[in-house]
Amino acid sequence: MATQLRAALWELVLTAAFLFLVVTAVRWLLVADSPAVAALPAPTLRLAAVALVVGAAIALVMSPALQRITAGHLNPAVTLGLWALRAFPGRAVLPFVAAQLAGSALGAYLGRVAWGPAADTAAVAPGEAWGGAAVLVLEAAAMAAMMLLAAYAPGVPRLTRALPLLMGGGVAAAIVGLGPVTGGSVNPARQFGPALLSGQTAHLAAYLLAPVLGALLGAGTYLLGRRGKRACPAEVAGGV
User: Fold this and answer.
1) What distance in Å separates the CA atoms of residue 70 and residue 3, rounded to the nearest whole number?
2) Cβ 235 vs Cβ 166: under 8 Å
């Protein structure tokens, strides 16, 4: 119990730090009054810079050094997907998800304290021609692909060693590829705090649900391919 509580507290702290980083990156790379707008006038380049920062943070959290002390999910969909893969204990799911959402709210709040109302731009939204349905389908598909990668990697040594970079790269690719359409969240915790603090909750349900559905779909596809054999990607589960 003490180990799980400590792991949940790490989730809260790391998710808060992650959201503060996201808010900071958005504030200083995407907001109109940022020096980055003059240095990188093309919106695609600035979005790619945000994706690089976020992807690098994910890779760092998943590195072997940090995995020895924390599960480092930072994402309720990842937690639920690993539970569906039978690689994460069911009794730890609720504490982890609660910690991640609390960390999201805390990190977004700290970002607003640091950067003022401009931090509200960290809440993503669908592109003008898109809506909640696009968020639901595309973000679920992106999360399903990443969960399949996380499930198969432990059985392939080369993938196991490269998994932090692959997952960080996958998140970065989702930000760049889905950014103009859905905002590229692919993480309920990524949107939860910024949306609540800014009041931009019109599509919040879709942003919360889509990655979870995608993670469960990816896990279910993997288990179906295994024909009922037990799946134990322990390296991804973080040892909780």
Assistant:
1) 10
2) no
Distance between CA atoms of residues 117 and 216, nearest Å: 36
Are 188 and 204 in contact, with CB atoms under 8 Å apart? Answer: no
Structure-derived torsion over alpha carbons of residues 113, 119, 124, 129, reported in degrees to the nearest 10: 150
From the number of C-beta atoms within 10 Å of its C-beta (0-12, 13-18, 19+), residue 169 rates as: middle
pLDDT single digits (tens) 92-130: 999 999 999 999 999 999 999 999 999 999 999 999 889
Comparing 8-12, 33-37, 138-142, 149-153, the range with the smallest average pLDDT is 33-37
> What tokens appear for 4 in the block?
């799980």
CB 61 within 8 A of CB 11: no
Reading the block at residue 142, the tokens are: 């992106």
| Model pTM score | 0.92
pLDDT exceeds cutoff 90 at 1:
no
Tell me the longest C-alpha to C-alpha distance in the chain. 55
Could you give the angle at the alpha carbon of 146 between the alpha carbons of 54 and 91, nearest 5°? 95
What is the length of the chain?
240
200, exposed or middle or buried, with CB in 10 Å at 0-12, 13-18, 19+? middle
Cα 72 to Cα 35, 79, 142, 164, distances in angstroms: 32, 10, 19, 11
142, amino acid identity = A
- Which pLDDT value is given to residue 236? 45
For residue 135, give every residue at least 6 positions away whose Cβ sits within 8 Å of its Cβ, in sequence order, or none: 126, 182, 183, 203, 206, 207, 210
